[in-house]
Amino acid sequence: MSGQVPRRFDFDTVFADDGAIAQASARPKRLYPYEEVEALRAQAFAEGERAAMARIEAAQAQALTDLARACQAALPRLAEVAHDHRTGAAELALACGQAIADAALDAFPRAPLQAALEVLAREIETTPRLVVTVPPQLQEGLEAVVAQSAQAMGFSGQVVVRADGGLSTAAFTLDFGDGQARFDPPGAAARVAAALHEALASEGLHAEPLIPGGPA
Question: Sign of torsion, CA 85 88 90 92?
Answer without folding.
Answer: negative
